[in-house]
Amino acid sequence: MAPSFDNESSLFNFVVRDGNGVKGMVDTGISKVPQAYIQPPKEQIDKRNASKLDLPPIDLSRLDGPDHDGVVKEIVKAAETLGFFQVINHGVPIDLLESLKDTAHNFFSLPAERKAIYRKEVSPSPLVKYGTSFVPEKEKALEWKDYISMAYTNDAEALQHWPVECRDVALQYLNTSLEMVRKLLGALMGNLGVELDDSKMDTYIGKKMVNMNFYPTCPNPELTVGVGRHSDMGTLTILLQDGIGGLYVNVPEDVDMENRGEWVEIPPVPGALVINIGDMLQILSNGRYKSAEHRVRTTSTKSRVSIPIFTSPQPTEKIAPLPQVVKKDGVARYREFVFSDYMNSFFGNAHDGKKSLEFAQTNSA
Ligand SMILES: O=C(O)CCC(=O)C(=O)O
Ligand SMILES: [Fe+2]
Question: Which of 23, 89, 133, 293 makes the best surface tag, with the fewest CB within 10 Å?
Fold first, then answer.
């Protein structure tokens, strides 16, 4: 028998502790969103008056031709303003993108007990974690999302430990994306006067993770969020979204763009990947590049999937604004810290916009 979802602890046990996820709850046939998922009014997403971002995707094949400098300028401009852009001709095969979306749907359609073996308390591998919401223990309202997270160390360990249902496509996705990540980061760092050799590159993107997010259909999308307002913690995120839409980014107040201060939707573009700047790149660039504040709406008609690759420094890495930039700016806007301390602060708090950066802020930020 389905538990009573009006009772908070019975809901928490079913969805979070027993690993049924939001998907398991929706499959019991609920007709309205339980109280635990109702967001405070200021976090609810009103779809009706949101604009769509009207920026053409950047064609990365042009990086290798005579337009190289022009493309670098487009990438830099996007990183300095919105912290979000889309790319095409990125080197990841289009049929792989289709397989990834199918694989995510298939994985989340598995019976709960097949997914629940990867809950963090019991997972057979520290590389793999299945869960729901972001930090359910700390959240006032839960997020309408289940996920599987696969950390990368090397190909052999990925093939050994990642769930058999997703490992091949997830690993191909990661491996075919890395060249693009290196090119993008090389261009962004080059613009700051910093040349990256292979080992320096590894300092900033040494840690890699592939996630699959699943947002089940929701009876009251106007009351919930798929993911609450946040910026990503790491260096660069590569994101595959499906055709459903619902990814919003906040246009900062202080940039020269239309829709300042508003949430704009990043429209799905077939074959494109979304790139977003994470907190580490904002800090390394001493605030020139902006980590993007974003969030995800739910829908009542179809379940949505998205598949991000998160790149970041290794936990033991010391991070601080790059000296070349601090010298030019005359001031360091962030202090030095060890990345694992930033991670603990990030995962120790519910999503709250760009508050994550306060951990590293100095008075001059
Ligand atoms: O589902 C999406 O489009 C975005 C997901 C996201 O922001 C995240 O996983 O950090
Ligand atoms: Fe994100």
Answer: 89
What is the chain's length? 365
CB of 296 shorter than 6 A to ligand 1: yes
Residue 232 CB less than 6 A away from ligand 1: yes
Whole-angstrom distance, CA of residue 357 vs CA of residue 290:
11
- Which among 144, 239, 307 is the best mutation to test ligand 1's pocket, defined by most ligand atoms within 8 Å of the CB? 239
Residue 364 placed within a domain: no
Q: For residue 217, give every residue at least 6 positions away whose Cβ sits within 8 Å of its Cβ, in sequence order, or none.
A: 26, 298, 299, 300, 301, 302, 303
- Is 105 among the domain residues? yes
pLDDT in tens, 93-145: 999 999 999 999 999 999 999 999 999 999 999 999 999 999 999 999 999 99
Cα(99) to centroid of ligand 1, in Å? 19
Ligand 1 neighbour 227 (Cβ under 6 A): yes
Residue-level pLDDT at 217: 98
In the predicted model, what is the mean pLDDT of residues 256-271?
92
In terms of Cβ atoms closer than 10 Å to its own Cβ (0-12, 13-18, 19+), residue 282 is buried
Test site for ligand 1: of 275, 306, 310, most ligand atoms within 8 A of the Cβ:
306
Residue 327 C-alpha to ligand 2 middle, in angstroms?
31
pLDDT band at 52 (very low <50, low <70, confident <90, very high): confident
| Total tally of structural domains belonging to the chain | 1
Q: How far, rounded to the nearest angstrom, does the alpha carbon of residue 197 sit from its chain's CA centroid?
A: 26
> For residue range 205-240, what is the model confidence (pLDDT) as tens digits?
999 999 999 999 999 999 999 999 999 999 999 999
CATH number of the domain at 200, please.
2.60.120.330
**Residue 148: inside a domain:** yes
Domain span at residue 187 reads: 8-359
pTM over 0.70: yes
**Residue 365 belongs to some domain of the structure:** no
- The rounded distance, in Å, linking the Cα atoms of 257 and 119 is 42
Task: Compute the distance from residue 95 Cα to the ligand 2 centre, in Å.
Answer: 24
